[in-house]
């Protein structure tokens, strides 16, 4: 067992405990960025001037009318920027643009004594625009060849030979939707300037170091003049990895120019219309199977809707490519990725970061092809699993370690969910119910852990022990509800050998730990946990020396457990508080900075090959659904999940991540439906679903009626802190089973054996059309196509129209 | 702070047991913004339109079974001036302060949420806690537990009705631990202060005239005073629960010179059952109607759980739903099928208008300036076969793509009478006259139903929008009738 993964006796890790802020949450005492406004004097409120056109060059910007509005203090424009007018890392994201790039783009910000004054001021700003043609949909972008950024190509084996060897070859297209993060707390920042002109920004950000960097470059300052703090976020999900920077910079610029605190807090509609989302994708594919249904070759092109600027689109597409294999061995593959440039918000990180999109493509392919191959979908999936001991590698060249876990978690789901019995019961139910059908589907997950970009896989921590024995830990990770801080407290208490109540955690600040990576890629606990552990180990080593001299033994023979130091084989005890006090008087340093870098990673973005991931997280899930054939409405009756989090650091937190990720994934795949005005009218490019009333999140009615989550047992991960694995993102993709179950339930209304296409998201309407198509299996489906054409924006996403699975000539001839 | 103008009348509100002036809030200021300005930042804004419930607070209202009920409402929609003289409790007020230096003593619902992992990011949590507390104190909660409802995915063994949380969204947990917490709460102990408060009379409505910056919020004591004022100010905005007006204020930044509150007028809050009709006061909340009728009108009982969320139903009224006149309101199709009429009143007197004649265009009606809706009348006896089919993306708290209400009299296998109300397929809610005619006098058979379903599909002029395509809307009209037929003729499990 590695040093990193080994657990001492009576560890605080592995114990189920509530979120460290749970009491503050339930009493309303927990503070979020905008709650600080009411504790700050003389705050100015910032309001954006949004231009409601999809694309155009600004020819005039008159701010005087705003200044005439009572209570308006200042209007911020590009002319006010002392540093670089850019809110991103790619220099393609002007904070105050000359060109409106999407419907709702903010071109100036008004500062007012009240939010009402700022709002009225923003409405008074006059903007003249030379309108330009716009690209709104992915299909328009593909046709116009409107792309930006890298065009990665992932190849392995010999694709042409693979197809030549295939008994069955199918082609298809699939377009699926974007997703709004809908963190309950919208983007917020509060900036202050101190007596030395230093800027302090409270920001709801997953990436304080980058927020700091961008605030500094916008203001023309060095990083040591800017401090960013994040108390906690009301949800992040990736939406606060890159997107908060510009809002923080606006607040900081306003504070710098007025000398007063400035607050930015977006309304829900502003947040929905101004901030990026999960990338919707288009996929065109060709797949070959041998006579037994084993994948021989895959040729695919994935196009992500990047929106107007690059943001994180390049790494998102890279991760999509790296996950198109999911749990399946694909010996020969050629997968291309590209980023559409469209006049929409700049799409960004979202839980899974392209991984879900890549995996959805292969799961959709298998769900559509199984009937054409005459195989049960579960059987088709199982036949293609990576197998242990064969040295199988991913299409980008990484060996799939622990491949046996793919089948192991699947088997455990089959056992826990009594799948065989229920499959029979479902068949009996369906035979007896002409208008209602049930189905059960299982899908698996293999998700690579580490940032694809190797440099990001580092972290720091600062641990302080005070004379009274109390411990304060600082680390670079941010808390957005995922329970990172809870785990860090458990790690510190475990490493130091003290009770949890002795450890407190300070808010995340850039002046405690520098150059941190985003709390993203599920890596928060892996990276920061190892850094916290490293700092605590340094302190423990020093304290063991002190204890050894007091206990009359060697440091190597002293153990600190539950706050008491003892020499091996001795009854003499030295309490933690006494030990710390002794160390202080002996002038032993009681603070330490910890550091961690993930070993053994390498990645060549040009050749698209390497071993970018420290390990893979595995899981499997089974969903049973019931579909009403009259309407397409459905319920999730039961879900069983077995997920691999290594040896859990904090089981209640991890189960919470699995459940929450699953429901969020199911929301993306079935319910959440972003619609844009794709017509040629004056509102072209407008987000139609720009409020909670039109963009529906899963509510209680979408949670599985029976929901069983089990963590894989004895699952120690040698390469990670205390044997644990990352958990933030992988469970989202367990939700594929819901979509596949809906597909199978729709098919059950038909004569059987038909390939059912299902739009994504699989709303009740989409399921209804799939049911209708299944009922008419084999007959051309005029109605559905006609309805898709009538649907607003639906023609593009409705794969029933443009994504037909076709058995090609090769396959028909049996070649 | 800038000068916000002069305070005319001293309006006051009791928050967590402490009374305070409402000034200097503007008349359009919501309870949410008022609380946050006062430093009670536990109440959060997540959507500002009554969809997410992060702002939920408890309000003391006249009770259905006890003198006072604690009801949860969306603080983002209610103007704080509407709560002049009223009492509210926030998440901060549910816990009891412990000794200095010790953590607060949590309320049982807070305890359950905290220890079971019911909070992750915590932002929605105070709102969940308030909605959960309202259900915790609901009278008759346990009576339901072992009765017919039983323990299902939506009804806990402790009588907890999960629909109490239908207006609260959580983006982190996936809801399972919240459901577990809800289904595990016990009953209030005897000296529970909020339970004891229920035994006392509720705060009385207070006549209010709250003016700031040239804009006024008015609550009169009687209907006749209100009608006199309305004669002077026919353009004043009328509100009951503010569930629609609050959205206009927050999302579309509408401001009004004068807002007149109707929700506490005794004349609009009666529910009378007479031999030939049932009269429901226009300002009773949907929750009050639901609990007072207690299933007496099955079609309404079917409607209520599908009408928005519990948080909205605790404020929203039938008068508001009909006054707004939206073609996608959920009550009109049901009331059309029930052949309801609307009692309109102005300073000169009353008139009764059949609902089928009430709507004249998109959000237009025969209601004249100076008139308001006093009550809704439903003729008795009721049709024996009724059903409400709401087609939406989400089962809890969504806006209908299409809504279809059926009220049929079947006798010896013949359809004696058919009334069908439709929402979401035209500029107004409509009756499906052609389909009704195709059913009446014919056998309740597959053949009749299929013919009528074809006509039903052609009713209205459905549009394609972000909720549904026109084709789906049309299809659903016909499908609802086919489904009703299947439900009446087969043992369908779902």
UniProtKB/TrEMBL annotation, chain A:
Superkingdom classification of source: Bacteria
Pfam families, sorted: Ald_Xan_dh_C (PF01315), MoCoBD_1 (PF02738), MoCoBD_2 (PF20256)
Region: Disordered, residue numbers: 781-815
Ranges where the Aldehyde oxidase/xanthine dehydrogenase a/b hammerhead domain occurs: 27-133
InterPro entries in alphabetical order: Ald_Oxase/Xan_DH_a/b, Ald_Oxase/Xan_DH_a/b_sf, Ald_Oxase/xanthine_DH-like, AldOxase/xan_DH_MoCoBD1, AldOxase/xan_DH_MoCoBD2, AldOxase/xan_DH_Mopterin-bd_sf, Xanthine_DH_Mopterin-bd_su
PANTHER family per the UniProt record, alphabetical: XANTHINE DEHYDROGENASE
The protein's name in its UniProt record: Xanthine dehydrogenase molybdopterin binding subunit
Taxonomic path: Bacteria, Bacillati, Actinomycetota, Actinomycetes, Kitasatosporales
UniProtKB/TrEMBL annotation, chain B:
Location of the FAD-binding PCMH-type domain: 210-383
Keyword field contains Disulfide bond: no
This protein's record includes keyword Ribosomal protein: no
Residue span, 2Fe-2S ferredoxin-type domain: 11-94
Keywords tagged on the record: FAD, Flavoprotein, Iron, Metal-binding, Oxidoreductase
Gene3D superfamilies: 3.10.20.30, 3.30.465.10, [2Fe-2S]-binding domain (1.10.150.120), CO dehydrogenase flavoprotein, C-terminal domain (3.30.390.50), Uridine Diphospho-n-acetylenolpyruvylglucosamine Reductase, domain 2 (3.30.43.10)
Pfam families named among the record's database cross-references: CO_deh_flav_C, FAD_binding_5, Fer2, Fer2_2
Name of the protein described by the UniProt record: FAD binding domain-containing protein
Native source organism of the sequence: Yinghuangia aomiensis
């Amino acid at each position: 067992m590695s040093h990193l993964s080994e657990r001492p006796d009576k560890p605080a890790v592995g114990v189920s405990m509530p979120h460290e802020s749970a009491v503050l949450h339930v009493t309303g005492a927990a503070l979020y960025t905008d709650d600080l406004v009411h504790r700050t004097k003389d705050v100015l409120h910032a309001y954006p001037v949004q231009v409601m056109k999809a694309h155009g060059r600004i020819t005039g910007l008159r701010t005087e009318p705003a200044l005439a509005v009572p209570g308006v203090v200042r209007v911020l424009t590009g002319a006010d920027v002392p540093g670089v007018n850019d809110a991103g890392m790619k220099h393609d994201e002007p904070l105050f643009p000359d060109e409106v790039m999407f419907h709702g783009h903010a071109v100036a910000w008004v500062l007012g004594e009240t939010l009402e004054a700022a709002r009225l001021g923003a409405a008074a700003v006059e903007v003249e625009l030379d309108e330009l043609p716009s690209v709104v949909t992915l299909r328009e972008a593909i046709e116009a060849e409107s792309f930006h950024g890298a065009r990665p190509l992932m190849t392995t084996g010999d694709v042409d030979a693979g197809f030549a060897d295939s008994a069955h070859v199918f082609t298809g297209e699939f377009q699926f939707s974007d997703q709004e993060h809908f963190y309950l707390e919208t983007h917020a920042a509060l900036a202050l300037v101190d007596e030395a002109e230093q800027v302090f920004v409270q920001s709801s950000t997953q990436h304080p170091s980058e927020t700091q960097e961008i605030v500094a470059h916008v203001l023309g300052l060095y990083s040591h003049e800017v401090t960013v703090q994040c108390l906690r976020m009301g949800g992040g999900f990736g939406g606060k990895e890159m997107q908060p920077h510009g809002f923080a910079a606006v607040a900081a610029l306003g504070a710098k120019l007025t000398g007063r605190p400035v607050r930015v807090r977006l309304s829900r509609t502003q947040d929905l219309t101004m901030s990026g989302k999960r990338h919707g994708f288009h996929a065109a594919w060709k797949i070959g199977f041998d006579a037994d249904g084993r994948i021989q070759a895959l040729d695919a092109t994935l196009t992500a809707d990047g929106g107007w600027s690059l943001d994180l689109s390049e790494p998102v597409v890279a991760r999509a490519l790296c996950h198109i294999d999911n749990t399946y061995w694909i010996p020969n593959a050629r997968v291309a990725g590209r980023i559409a440039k469209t006049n929409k918000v700049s799409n960004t990180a979202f839980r899974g970061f392209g991984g879900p999109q890549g995996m959805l493509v292969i799961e959709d392919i298998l769900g559509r092809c199984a009937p054409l191959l005459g195989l049960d979908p579960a059987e088709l999936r199982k036949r293609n699993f990576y197998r242990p001991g064969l040295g199988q590698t991913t299409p980008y060249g990484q060996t799939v370690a622990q491949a046996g876990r793919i089948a192991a978690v699947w088997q455990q789901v089959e056992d826990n969910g009594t799948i065989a019995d229920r499959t029979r019961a479902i068949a009996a139910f369906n035979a007896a119910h002409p208008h209602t059908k049930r189905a059960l589907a299982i899908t698996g997950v293999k998700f690579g852990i580490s940032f694809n970009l190797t440099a990001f896989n580092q972290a720091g921590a600062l641990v302080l022990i005070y004379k009274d024995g109390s411990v304060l830990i600082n680390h670079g990770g941010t808390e957005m509800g995922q329970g990172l801080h809870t785990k860090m407290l458990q790690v510190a208490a475990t490493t130091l050998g003290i009770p949890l109540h002795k450890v407190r955690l300070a808010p995340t600040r850039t002046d405690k730990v520098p150059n941190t990576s985003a709390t993203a890629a599920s890596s928060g606990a892996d990276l920061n946990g190892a850094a916290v552990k490293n700092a605590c180990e340094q302190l423990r080593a020093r304290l063991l020396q002190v204890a050894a001299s007091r206990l009359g033994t060697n440091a190597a023979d002293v153990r600190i457990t539950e706050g008491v130091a003892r020499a091996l084989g001795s009854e003499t005890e030295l309490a933690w508080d006494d030990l710390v006090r002794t160390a202080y008087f002996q002038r032993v340093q009681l603070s330490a900075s910890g550091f961690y870098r993930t070993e053994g990673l390498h990645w060549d973005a040009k050749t698209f090959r390497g071993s970018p991931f420290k390990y893979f997280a595995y899981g499997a899930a089974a969903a049973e659904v019931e579909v009403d054939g009259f309407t397409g409405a459905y319920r999730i009756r039961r879900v069983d999940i077995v997920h691999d989090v290594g040896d859990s650091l904090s089981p209640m937190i991890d189960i919470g991540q699995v459940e929450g990720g699953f429901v969020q994934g199911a929301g993306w795949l079935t319910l959440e439906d972003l619609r844009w005005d794709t017509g040629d009218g004056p509102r072209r490019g407008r987000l139609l679903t720009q409020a909670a009333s039109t963009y529906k999140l899963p509510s209680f009615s979408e949670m599985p009626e029976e929901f069983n989550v089990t963590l894989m047992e004895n699952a120690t991960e040698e390469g990670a802190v205390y044997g644990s694995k990352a958990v933030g993102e992988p469970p989202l993709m367990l939700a594929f089973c819901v979509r596949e179950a809906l597909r199978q339930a729709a098919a059950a209304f038909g004569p059987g054996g038909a390939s059912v296409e299902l739009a994504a998201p699989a709303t009740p309407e989409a399921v209804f059309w799939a049911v209708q198509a299944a009922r008419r299996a084999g007959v051309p489906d005029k109605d559905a196509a006609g309805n898709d054409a009538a649907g607003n924006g639906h023609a593009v996403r409705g794969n029933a129209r443009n994504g037909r699975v076709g058995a090609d000539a090769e396959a028909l001839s049996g070649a | 702070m800038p000068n916000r103008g002069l305070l005319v009348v001293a309006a006051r509100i009791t928050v967590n047991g402490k009374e305070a002036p409402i000034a200097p809030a503007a008349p359009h200021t919501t309870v949410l913004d008022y609380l946050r300005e006062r430093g009670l930042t536990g109440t959060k804004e997540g959507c500002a339109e009554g969809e997410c419930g992060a702002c939920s607070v408890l309000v003391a209202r006249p009770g259905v079974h006890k003198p006072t009920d604690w009801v949860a409402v969306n603080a983002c929609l209610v103007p704080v001036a509407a709560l002049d003289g009223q009492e509210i409790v926030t998440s901060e007020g549910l816990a009891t302060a412990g000794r200095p230096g010790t953590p607060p003593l949590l309320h049982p619902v807070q305890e359950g949420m905290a220890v079971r992992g019911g909070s992750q990011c915590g932002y929605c949590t105070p709102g969940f806690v308030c909605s959960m507390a309202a259900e915790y104190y609901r009278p008759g909660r346990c009576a339901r537990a072992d009765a017919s409802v039983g323990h299902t995915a939506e009804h806990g063994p402790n009588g907890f009705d999960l629909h109490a949380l239908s207006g609260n969204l959580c983006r982190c947990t996936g809801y399972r631990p919240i459901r577990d917490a809800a289904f595990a709460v016990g009953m209030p102990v005897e000296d529970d202060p909020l339970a004891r408060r229920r035994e006392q009379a509720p705060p009385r409505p207070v006549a209010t005239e709250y003016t700031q910056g040239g804009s006024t919020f008015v609550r009169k004591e009687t209907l006749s005073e209100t009608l006199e004022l309305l004669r002077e100010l026919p353009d004043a905005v009328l509100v009951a629960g503010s569930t629609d007006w609050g959205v206009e204020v927050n999302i579309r930044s509408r401001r009004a010179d004068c807002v007149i509150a109707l929700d506490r007028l005794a004349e609009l809050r009666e529910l009378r059952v007479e031999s030939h009709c049932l009269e429901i006061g226009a300002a009773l909340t949907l929750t009050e109607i639901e609990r007072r009728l207690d299933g007496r009108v099955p079609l309404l009982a079917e409607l209520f759980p599908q009408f928005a969320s519990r948080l909205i139903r605790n404020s929203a009224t039938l008068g508001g739903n009909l006054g707004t006149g939206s073609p996608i309101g959920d009550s009109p199709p049901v009331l059309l099928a029930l052949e309801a009429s609307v009692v309109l009143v102005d300073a000169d007197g009353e008139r009764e208008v059949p609902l089928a004649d009430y709507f004249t265009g998109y959000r237009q009606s025969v209601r004249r300036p100076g008139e308001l809706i006093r009550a809704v009348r439903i003729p008795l006896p009721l049709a024996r076969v009724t059903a409400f089919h709401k087609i939406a993306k989400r089962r809890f708290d969504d806006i209908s793509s299409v809504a279809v209400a059926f009220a049929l009299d079947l006798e010896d296998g013949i359809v004696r009478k058919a009334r069908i109300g439709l929402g979401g397929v035209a500029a107004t809610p409509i009756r499906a006259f052609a389909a009704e005619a195709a059913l009446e006098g014919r056998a309740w058979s597959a053949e009749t139903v299929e013919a009528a379903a074809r006509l039903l599909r052609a009713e209205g002029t459905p549009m394609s929008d972000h909720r549904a395509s026109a084709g789906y809307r049309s299809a659903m009209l016909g499908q609802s009738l086919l489904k009703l037929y299947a439900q009446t003729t087969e043992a369908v499990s779902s």
